[in-house]
Each structure stands twice: as C-alpha cells, then as structure tokens.
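Subject: two folds for Thursday's group meeting

Dear M.,

Sorry for the delay on this. The cluster queue was jammed most of the week, so I only got both jobs back this morning. I'm pasting them in the order they finished. Each block is the input sequence followed by the predicted structure tokens. Could you check whether the formatting survives your parser before we put anything on slides? The first protein is the one we discussed after the seminar.
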Amino acid sequence: MTTASPVHVRALVFDVFGTVVDWRSAIVRDGRALAAANGLAVDWEAFADAWRAGYQPAMQRVRSGAVGWTTIDRLHREILESLLPRFGLASLDERERDALNRVWHRLDPWPDVVAGLARLKRRYTIATLSNGNVSLLVDMAKRAGLPWDTVLSAELFGHYKPDREVYLGAARVLDVAPAELLMVAAHPSDLAAAAQAGLRTAYVPRPLEYGPGGGLHDAPGDQTFDLVAADFGALADQLGA
C-alpha cells in the first residue's frame, strides 16, 4: 500500500457501508433485541456476516442483467428471506421481517465520522456515493446526524458500484471533473474502480468492520492511493480542513 502525492480536489464522495457506518454492530444490536422479545437464540454475529456476504452476489445479478434494476432495500430483503430458516427465524411475521430489514437505515457511524465530516464540509462539498438507495441514505443521515451536502446513490444512475457509470455520474451531477472528485472508502476495490474512472482516491481502513479480530476483507496490497488516513479527522488534517 502506497500513497501518491495529494492533488487539488473540489468535492469528496464517500462509500457508506463499512466506511462511514458500522453495519455489523447495528445488526447484532437490533437482532439481539428482536431475539429477546421472541425468546429466540441466534448467533447474530454469524447472521450479520452472512447477510453482508450476500450483498455482492445480489448486486452482480443486477449488473449482469439477470434481473432488472432493484434497490438495495429489496436486495437486502431477498437475502434476509434466504437466511431466516437457516438461523431459526422463520417464525418472524411480516412486520418483524420488515423492521429487521430496515436495520440498514439505522446504522451508527464510526466515532470519528460526524466531527470529521463537519470539518471537511467547511471546505469541500461532501456527499455519499453508496449502493444504498436514496431513502435508506436519507434515513441514516437524519438518525445519525451525518452532515452531507447531498445524497448520491447508485440508484440515481441505474448502476451499482463498481460500474464506471456511478463514479462518472457523481462527478457529472456535482459539476466537477473526475480528477477534482475524491472518493473516500475503506475498500480498495471500490477505490480501484474510482481511480479507473479518473477520480482521486483516499483510503481510510476500518479494521473493525467485521468485528474484533475480523481483519480487512479487502486488503490493499501494493495498491496506490492519493491519500491514506487512519480516520476522517486525519483525512481532514491532510486536506487542510
């Protein structure tokens, strides 16, 4: 992993799941509350990991044209339905299933995020660039106090990351050149696709994304980034915010 020389940027876009918010802890938290209310015994850590593991394959079905455009909320629900019998949750009724699926709207930010974004916002336009649908991202931002200037979603472009159209679409709607747009993510594969589309990249690793001892599931290897920062505060330092 190496860092290239920083360059001038006008706007920053952020991956959300794992980079901005801690999806795993929220699923475990809400799952335990649900299990307690229903007298169920569930390995919620394993459940969270299994739910997330279905994310990329589900989006690939859309990318490949096997199914038409489908929002992340709907894909999450399809994955959830496939997991319920495996984890002893088939007894959940429709209301409980819908509430559990909407946990993705209630994810908590990492501790450095809100203050770091507030600093960056003073100097740059900041926005999401997530595969999450718009309503999900708006609900999450309102609940968690995430100070986005705007919410950009793959839903707006009819493509999922890492499709090139998402990154170039973000530059287009923000009215900046791709080289003036900095993609911030904890996932090197996301940043590699952004770089191929001409964006600048900032790597902010989240070693606790998969819990203590979970490690990085998307290791950077010898990949080069324009910036590398331990957290959003350090990123703001590097960008003079």
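Second protein, same layout:
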Amino acid sequence: MRVLILRSRPPATAGETNGPYTQEFRSRFADKVIGNLRGEGGCCSACGPDCTQCRAGYGRRFADDIAAVIELPGAMPYLLENPAEHVPAGIPPHDVALAINIHEQVLVEFLTRCEAFGTRGLVAPLEARDWVSRSARRQARRIADRIGVEVDFPKPFCDFDPPAGSVLAAFRSRFCIGKPDVELTVTDGVIAKADVRVSAACGATYYVARWLEGRRVTDDLAHDVVAKRLHSYPCTASMAWDDELGDTVLHVAGQAHYDILAPLGVRPGDDEEEMIASPVGGMIRKPTPPKENIENIERAKGAILADLARHGSASLKELRTRCPASPAAIHSALLLLKQAGHIRTEGDRILKGIAD
C-alpha cells in the first residue's frame, strides 16, 4: 500500500502571514506524523538523555511506502481564486492520501482530481476545530461518494478507527497509526510488556507504552502514566472547546489513550472524566461549554434578583453563600445586572436597581 502525504510547510518569513485575509497552517503535527512513519529517531525528544529508542524494536519504517510528500504554502489567503494551481501535476500513484492541515479548498480540489492518481481513500485529521470546516467536509464527502473514494476526518487522528474490511482500515493496519491499540502482558500484577500494535499518528503511544512497562496494575496508571506522559510528549491537539465534540480535541486524544487500560479494568471514574491533564502534566477541570456557561449565568441572575427581593440587600459573600451558582457565574451575573440597571451598590451592599 502506498500513501501520499499532503502537508503545509512552515512560512519562509514572518511577512508571509501578514494581512487580515491570510490564513496560516501549522506544520508541527505533520512533522511528527512523517517522522513517525519514517521511523526517524529525532521525531520524538520527550525522553531526552533517557531515550531507549522504544520504536526501534518494532522495525516500522515506511519511508519506501510514501509515494511523495507534497508541500503546500504555510500561509495562504482564506479564499483562493484558483485552488487548482496548488494541486501539482504529476502526482504519483498511491492508495491513500493523508492531508495534514492544508487549505480546505485545495483539499476539495484534490478530491475532484484524485481518480487520475488512483486514490482509493483519503484521511484528513482534525487536530483543531478550524482545520477543515463542516461545509468543506460535506462537500468532500459528496465528491468522494460520487467517485467511490473512502474519506474520513477523524478528530483527532488518534480517534481514527475505520470499519473492518475498508481501504482505510487496511491503511490503519499497514501503517500502524490511528486509534491506539496496545497489548498488555501482566505478570504477578505488574505490566511486563506493553506491545504497541497501533500508535497515535504522532507516535505518542510508544512513549506512553514505554512508561507503562514495569508499573503495577494497582498504580494510578490513568493519571500518573497515561495523562502525564501523553502531555509531556507533548500532545499537539487543541485545548480549545469544540462544540461539535462537546469537548476539547485534546481530551478526546486523552480518552483514546485511557482506552489502552480497559483490559485491566482501569477506567477514569466520574470525577476523573471531568478532569484533563494540563500541558505541564497537572490535572485541571474540563472547561465549561460556552452554551452551559451562558445558562449558568442566566440562572445566577435569576437567583440574585430573587435573593434581593427576599432580603432587600446582600453582600457579595452572602450571595455566594445563598445563591446556587459558581463564583464565576455570580460575578458575571452581577456585572450584567449592573450594566442593565437592575442592581446598584452602596458600599459593600448590593441592592435592587432603580429600574426595578
């Protein structure tokens, strides 16, 4: 199986990204994926001087299976007048195209022409919510359905697990990238071996697996190994809230690696599901979805006005004690109520506004 890689190169100069109509495409994730596929030792530097070359024993070096790496400009206008000019002539035959953070108009244009290249499948991973818009994905799927090409937009890449028997499933199996699959061998309560069958495309799973070996199954594997090691690799998925996922892309990547521990009966509990690892390895609470934030503030506004109707006035400390809302929601609600003239302040007391 042959794979074609479409990627964006770093901007040659800072001036390339100037202007309100210019979009910049990040290349760090592509570097990691290509380095992992080629088996390059330098694509991971997480262990530093303690490196054990954990990938080397697997012998996974797919450089000869990469038909070509097509580099596109790292900074392009948001709207292209002629996307076709960015799809080079003479693209070599291949089975699967891997498009890593390229301009979505170029991605769609490539699909319209890919029959000539022998493309049977295309994977465009989404490590951030803005890599490929929903409309571009819908357009790409319509084109792919018409020409009989399999297409997937995993968000993130380590959630890539296509159905058995598909071209993309064969791609995942051949190149050992996608949703992590690790076989754990346990002897006397200790993980004696963590054999990586499929790794996250960036190679992070090899690093996580290395640190699972030698740990007791009763240890805090989810936090002390998986979360900390994944984020010290580091994972490059976005920490921004994604309404489509109802989560952050980074947290979905973390969950994919927590699944490694499922055969041991280890799953994060309800409280742990509400936590994610920060980039420095500590555990922090998941961000509240924007819609839920707005609802919380509206509830706090109602609770504050009801409290003032009962008591006439209140201090901030009293409101925090009596109103069933978070301090952040109460503060936001007070600001909005004061701006609208529904409350006023006298010293440290909060009272109903003149408008009310």
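Two things I noticed about the second structure. The longest strand covers residues 190-198. Residues 86 and 106 are 7 Å apart (CA to CA).

Cheers,
T.
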